[in-house]
Specification:
- The complex is a heterodimer of chains A (about 500) and B (about 500).
- Chain A has about 500 residues and is α+β, with helices and mostly antiparallel strands.
- Chain A is about 40% helix and about 20% strand.
- Chain A has helices at about 55-65, 170-185, 225-245, 290-300, 305-315, 320-325, 330-345, 350-365, 375-390, 395-405, 410-420, 425-440, 440-450, 455-465, 470-489, and strands at about 5-15, 70, 75, 80, 90-95, 100-110, 115-130, 130-135, 145-150, 155-160, 200-210, 220-225, 255-260, 265-270, 280, 285-290.
- In chain A, helix 7 runs parallel beside helix 9 and helix 12 packs across helix 14 (about 455-465).
- With about 500 residues, chain B is of the alpha/beta class.
- Chain B is built from 15 helices and 11 strands.
- Chain B is globular.
- Classes of the chains: A alpha+beta (about 500), B alpha/beta (about 500).
- Chains A and B meet through loops of A and helix 9 of B.
């Protein structure tokens, strides 16, 4: 009989803050610059240089904390974490040890079955990013030499540590998505995994279901995407269970995730754990944060995804699903709100439908990111107005939509240029209706014998003849009229 | 006259330059010739920037001839800078093999301020490697000798700065003081040395030894000169987060010296056991002179002093072990040849690049921060530091300043204590508590024992550096110790 196992997961997520300048100096904080161009004596740790805290980095850390429901430490300080590595110019990382700026927060995630789970945030602290090593070879071991780029050295980084509250790879994935979304809404980071502005370490352990004690954990490093996190957790979970079921003991160790091979390999065991010799950073005075300061920062927080989702449902009557895919990205939500602002609240559902069904489809096809929305809210609302006025039909609207995306022109111009105006002239449509009825006696007979769908078929013919420009209700009415006339003949 | 500039004060040189009686070039040449003459015996400089200083002097002269009268208070004054203070265009080696040949791409704030004041930086002075030592013997390059007795040490770690002033090579020099490194060599070489309040002078560009204790300060022949240099270097600097952002008051010296109404305390813990009887006698005489000037003097107590030395070595070395981690051979400075991997490069580079004293201190500092030892050492030391601060606060409720010997004994023979680091560490007992509390203190010459200078230390309240200088000036005014100059053998023996 096999034991039922429960997986326990905690995450340590590193997020680069999107400040203009680095955390201890005024060098630019930018991704992708020529190597070693955004550097100065301070971020290169030249002899005699000293750090000075970038007030914006402090503000963003507190802002992230408030967005994640944390308490803010009124008197905080920085500490040195000492270790040698070629990408760390000072030989220590300025971090926070026992007084992190933010603590005791949480994030609520919604599982597939609709239930909500609260994942507690233990702490968020501000620290320094290191430089980047470029190995002249496939990896460190094979390289003859390595080059160092210090552009990233001194970029402000926050480390978000969860309590061991996650119970599955799926939950971890949902948490990371939610976290990314909240941080992006807050504007403190651009949270791009591919540019390394969000990275995570995963702690996994396994215990018999129902047990209250934690199992021995392994820490997984080099997890470079959300899907890698999910795969890594699943792998570790299986590895632990296998060891335990074979009667073995899991060792506390740090492992490296090799996503391409789908395996984790031992990095160091508990005995080899580094002693970082933390001590208070003597070059920086303690940080005092006042209530006024916290409230001022809180006031700069935008509406966050959870609250916004609620509002979209209650205020605009959107379904939970529709609301969730609109708030999933800050840019999507802003786009939606702007469109509704222009179109009026009664059009909210229409806006949502177009956004979700058409806009996302186009973006998917074109592989566009949320910061590359190919249509303005003004364009969509212009099109909706033409539909409302009856100038274009719903069918034509789809054509207009695609053309707007393609050309960037507004709906009115496209409709005018392409002659897509709806045909609502009764006389003209009736003439067409009579023609098609007369030309298709077999279908007419079907109708006569009671086949209701035959009328729809004639509407389709009218649409074909008018290239979709006919008003569909009007067309049905006139088709019915023409059919009845034909029957009386 | 130009051959005699080495006996003139900075104030005097500045006046003569402004009056056009001496050109900056004449002053610089005179200083250079004095250096050329005495350096072979004293060895105060690691680097003499002859070309640089003459070029600078020419520019000053050109400005003065062109009618510029916007000169700062050190215009035309040659100044030596300790080699742990960053200077563009000159090496900054900290007297370490690790930084041999290293030229900083930027000037320390104090150096910027020196240049703006019209001072002429003439070179970089020798020191104990990374400011770790009390004799100057821990330099990787040379041993500076005490101009009063060439067989003796000049003290440390600002050995070169003190010796250069004492030997008349420059009227003023910058040193740094982490546990006495300005005051102790000032006392050993018979010059005036000020350790300003922590936070008064920017540390930006000053190579860190122990960040929470380091402070830059002036050394000179008399209090006015020292005050003049202090006023130039002190003040706000946003590049140093530990800078207090305060500007010192304008200092004026003159009139009849008086200490009427000044209350002085003499901490018994720093004036008893372990103090050489000769030193004690000189300082007692000095205290009587302070009383004659109107001061009231009373004994007081700093009960935590007994633990201050231990706490200092824990804190200073912990910080140093971390501050010196950047010397790893990756980006600048020394890198050991032919190493296999990263770890080997680190250990060989640091093993070969640092001297024995520095390595000893890095190891001790690393040890006290290690997991399992932190509470017993580092945390305990910080608690002692708090007690030391409270001792001083309590004393300053009753007194305006405290008086102690700067050092328990006079300069020792070169090599005498080199194998006994504990004995050397104990010599800093009077100066170290001051750094722990971040207070200002000045060492002024107060006589001789067997031909060797003795220093008296005055300790002041936080940011009371100006008052301290006023007291020291009053004392100096009624004594002549600071006017005594060593006679170097080249000048005809003694």
């Amino acid at each position: 009989m096999s034991t039922k196992w429960e997986t326990v997961i905690g995450l340590e997520v590193h997020v680069e803050l999107a400040t203009e300048t680095k955390v201890w100096c005024s060098c630019k904080n930018e991704f992708g610059a020529e190597p070693n161009t955004n550097v100065c004596p301070v971020c290169l740790a030249l002899p005699g240089s000293l750090p000075v805290l970038n007030a914006r980095a402090l503000e963003y850390t507190i802002k992230a904390g408030l967005a994640l429901n944390c308490k803010i430490q009124r008197r905080s300080k920085f500490d040195r974490k000492n270790y040698f590595y070629a990408d760390l110019p000072s030989g220590y990382q300025i971090s926070q040890f026992d007084l992190p700026l933010c603590y005791d927060g949480y994030v609520d995630i919604t599982l597939k079955d609709g239930t909500t789970r609260r994942i507690r945030i233990q702490r968020i602290h501000l620290e320094t990013d290191a430089g980047k090593l470029v190995h002249a070879g496939d990896d460190v071991a094979a390289a003859d030499f390595s080059l160092v780029d210090f552009n990233r050295a001194g970029v402000p980084l926050i480390e978000i540590v969860t309590e061991p509250d996650l119970r599955s790879a799926e939950e971890a994935g949902l948490f990371l998505e939610k976290l990314r979304s909240i941080l992006k809404y807050s504007g403190v980071s651009d949270v791009k995994m591919e540019e390394g502005s969000m990275r995570c370490d995963v702690n996994v352990s396994v215990r018999p279901a129902g047990s209250t004690e934690f199992g021995v954990r392994s820490e997984l490093k080099n997890v470079n995407s959300f899907s890698a996190a999910v795969r890594g957790i699943e792998y570790e979970q299986k590895r632990h269970i296998r060891i335990l079921e074979e009667g073995g003991q899991v060792e506390q160790e740090t492992r490296s995730w090799r996503d391409a091979q789908g395996i984790s390999v031992l990095l160091r065991s508990k005995e080899d754990a580094e002693d970082y010799r933390y001590f208070p950073e003597p070059d920086l005075p303690p940080v005092e944060v006042t209530t006024e300061e916290i409230e001022r920062i809180r006031a700069t927080l935008p509406e966050l995804p959870d609250a916004l989702m609620q509002r979209l449902m209650t205020e605009y009557g959107l379904s939970a699903y529709d609301a969730s895919v609109i708030v999933a990205e800050r840019e999507y939500a802003q786009w939606f709100l702007q469109a509704v602002e222009l179109a009026g609240a009664d059009q909210a559902k229409a806006v949502a439908n177009w956004q979700i069904n058409e806009l996302y489809r186009v973006m998917n096809e074109k592989e566009l990111g949320p910061d590359q929305i190919p249509l303005t809210p003004e364009q969509l609302v212009g099109m909706l107005k033409l539909m409302e006025k009856g100038t274009i039909t719903g069918k034509i609207a789809k054509t207009v939509f695609d053309k707007m995306v393609e050309t960037g022109k507004d709906a009115e111009t496209i409709v005018k240029d392409e002659g897509l105006t709806q045909v609502a002239d009764e006389g003209e449509l009736l003439a067409i209706a009579r023609e098609v009825v007369a030309a298709n006696p077999k279908v007419f007979e079907d109708w006569k014998s009671g086949k209701q769908s035959a009328a729809q078929w004639f509407v389709g013919q009218i649409m074909k003849r008018t290239r979709g420009r006919a008003n569909p209700q009007l067309a049905l009415k006139l088709v019915t009229q023409a059919l009845e006339e034909q029957a009386q003949k | 006259m130009s051959g005699m500039t080495h006996i003139l004060s900075a104030a005097r040189l500045n006046r003569l330059f402004l009056a056009g009686e001496l050109s900056a070039v004449e002053i610089a040449e005179s200083a250079l010739s004095r250096i050329a003459k005495v350096e072979p015996q004293v060895g105060a400089f690691l680097h003499v920037a002859a070309e640089h200083v003459l070029d600078r002097a020419k520019k000053l002269d050109a400005r003065r001839r062109a009618g510029d009268n916007e000169f700062g208070p050190l215009a035309g004054v040659p100044i030596a800078v300790k080699d742990n203070i960053c200077t563009c265009g000159m090496e900054t080696t900290c007297a370490s093999r690790m930084l041999k040949g290293y030229v900083s791409p930027y000037d320390a704030t104090v150096v910027e301020r020196l240049r703006a004041s019209g001072a002429m930086i003439i070179g970089k002075t020798n020191m104990d490697e990374f400011a770790m030592g009390s004799s100057g013997e821990a330099s990787a390059f040379q041993t500076t000798r005490n101009p009063w007795d060439l067989e003796r040490v000049p003290g440390g770690s600002s050995s070169g700065s003190a010796a250069a002033v004492a030997a008349g090579e420059v009227p003023l020099a910058l040193g740094t003081d982490t546990g006495g490194s300005i005051r102790q060599p000032a006392a050993f070489t018979g010059v005036v040395g000020l350790k300003p309040t922590y936070g008064y002078v920017s540390r930006y560009g000053v190579v860190s030894f122990a960040s929470s204790l380091d402070q830059v300060g002036p050394l000179g022949h008399d209090v006015e000169d020292v005050a003049r240099l202090f006023e130039v270097i002190a003040g706000p600097d946003r590049r140093d987060a530990t800078n207090a952002g305060r500007t010192p008051p304008e200092l004026k010296f003159g009139g009849d010296p008086s200490l009427a109404g000044v209350r002085l305390g003499v901490p018994r813990e720093l004036f008893g056991q372990g103090i050489d009887s000769g030193v004690k006698a000189r300082v007692e005489e000095a205290i009587r002179q302070l009383e004659d000037l109107g001061a009231t003097v009373e004994e007081c107590s700093l009960p935590s002093t007994e633990y201050a030395l231990s706490a200092y070595y824990v804190i200073a070395l912990a910080e140093a072990s971390s501050n010196l981690a950047r010397y790893d051979g990756v980006r600048y400075g020394f890198r050991a040849a032919q190493t296999g991997g990263l770890t080997e490069m680190y250990s060989k580079t640091r093993g070969e690049g640092f001297g024995a004293e520095v390595k000893r201190r890095i190891m001790l500092g690393t040890y006290v921060l290690s997991s399992g030892h932190y509470d017993a050492y580092y945390r305990k030391a910080q608690q002692v530091r708090t007690l030391v601060v409270r001792d001083f606060e309590r004393a300053f409720e009753r007194f305006d300043a405290l008086v102690t010997p700067t050092t328990p004994f006079t300069a020792w023979r070169i090599g005498e204590k080199i194998d006994d680091p504990m004995a050397m560490y104990l010599g800093d007992i009077c100066t170290i508590p001051v750094n722990l509390a971040g207070l200002p203190a000045i060492s002024v010459p107060c006589g001789f024992v067997d031909g060797l200078p003795v220093g008296m230390q005055l300790i002041g309240k936080h940011f009371a550096d100006a008052q301290l200088l006023q007291m020291a000036w009053a004392y100096q005014k009624v004594t002549k110790h600071h006017e005594s100059r060593p006679v170097l053998t080249e000048e005809g023996g003694r």
